[in-house]
UniProtKB/TrEMBL annotation:
Name the record gives this protein: MIP18 family-like domain-containing protein
An example Gene Ontology biological process: chromosome segregation
Organism (species): Cylindrobasidium torrendii FP15055 ss-10
GO cellular component: intracellular protein-containing complex; iron-sulfur cluster assembly complex
Domain MIP18 family-like intervals: 50-121
Family that this chain belongs to: Belongs to the MIP18 family.
Keywords assigned by UniProt, alphabetized: Chromosome partition
Highest taxon of the lineage: Eukaryota
Pfam families assigned: FeS_assembly_P
């Protein structure tokens, strides 16, 4: 990263009580309940707060702050209809060059945490980015996402946003 797109972002207070380091919302226990049992057939509803808890702790690629602290994501920006999940995020500045990386980080966290039955659409908030249509197209094109996730340098950057923060 050579250029910082928003050197002085506004930091918002967060709800500390439900913040957790979640890797998956599906539990595995010592009794063997996991992927090979009858629990796989049980469809458990997921609400917007559970999805928000998954993505709120993702770090911004430029700053040592979470997406929640920067007000990039919020629970009201998440819509769930059956197995369709729509996540909207708001870049901190209209010319944010990290928007695609932020969206990819959200997608990877959700891919790792949700069952395959979910179709996930990730978009920037309408009117919040100068290249809104291009960013949305990149984030929701399966082939582009797959190609991006084959790039070792990009995957390393995404891993950093999902784990400890600024790359």
């Amino acid at each position: 990263m050579s250029e910082i797109y928003n050197p002085n972002p506004v930091i918002f207070s967060t709800n500390k009580q439900s913040k957790s380091n979640i890797h998956s919302i599906w539990l595995q226990d010592d009794e063997g309940y996991g992927s090979d049992t009858y629990f796989d057939d049980i469809v458990e509803p997921i609400d917007q707060n559970e999805i928000f808890d998954l993505i709120r702790t993702i770090y911004d690629p430029e700053h040592p702050n979470t997406l929640e602290e920067l007000n990039v994501v919020s629970a009201p920006q998440i819509k769930i209809s059956g197995n369709h999940l729509h996540v909207e995020f708001t870049p901190t500045v209209p010319h944010c060059g990290m928007s695609t990386l932020i969206g990819l980080s959200i997608r990877v966290r959700l891919m790792r945490s949700l069952p395959d039955r979910f179709k996930v659409d990730i978009v920037v908030k309408p009117g919040s980015h100068q290249s809104e249509l291009a960013v949305n197209k990149q984030l929701n094109d399966k082939e582009r996402v797959a190609a991006a996730l084959e790039n070792p340098a990009l995957v390393k950057t995404i891993e950093a946003t999902l784990q400890q923060g600024v790359v």
